[in-house]
Amino acid sequence: MNKVFLIGNLTRDPELTETTSGISVCRFAIAVNRSYSSANGERQTDFFNCVAWRGLGENVARYAKKGNKVAVSGSVELRNYEDSQGVKRTGIDIVAQDVEFLTPRANGEGGYDGAPSAPSQGGKRANLQAFDDDADIPF
Fold first, then answer.
1. 73 partner at 20 to 30 Å CA-CA among 47, 57, 106, 122?
2. 136 Rama sector, left if φ>0, alpha if ψ -120 to 50, beta otherwise
């Protein structure tokens, strides 16, 4: 079974392109910290190139940016190619089957800002009052 699950931060903004047949493909890279430190106390980091196809790729390109934390599940794919000097090389890609966005969006981006908001009334925040209903509880 070829299955991988990674949580890390994007190292650059995602790049969305299309194949010649019009299929969307998004390429991005994530940095994943290892769960242990080296002998001198430094935390080691691994870097993974990821590929997301079609609608998933479009969503990654639309909602993710450099520095965002994401969870990627998918499979490992090996690519064999020749570089410009004719040397045979192997590339490793993570082909994403699911990407979860773990960084909350900032206030101006139309998403969750990390703080609960009160229902608005005509563009103003409603004045909410605390309600203590614990008086009737027998325990």
1. 106
2. alpha
Answer yes or no: is pLDDT of 113 > 70: no
Q: Tell me the per-residue pLDDT of 50-60, one tens digit each, with 9 for 90 and over.
A: 999 999 999 99
DSSP the chain: ---EEEEEEESS--EEEE-TTS-EEEEEEEEEEEEEE-TTSPEEEEEEEEEEEHHHHHHHHHH--TT-EEEEEEEEEEEEEE-TTS-EEEEEEEEEEEEEE-SPPPGGGTS--SS--PPEETTEE--------GGG---
What count of other Cβ atoms lies within 10 Å of the Cβ of residue 30? 24
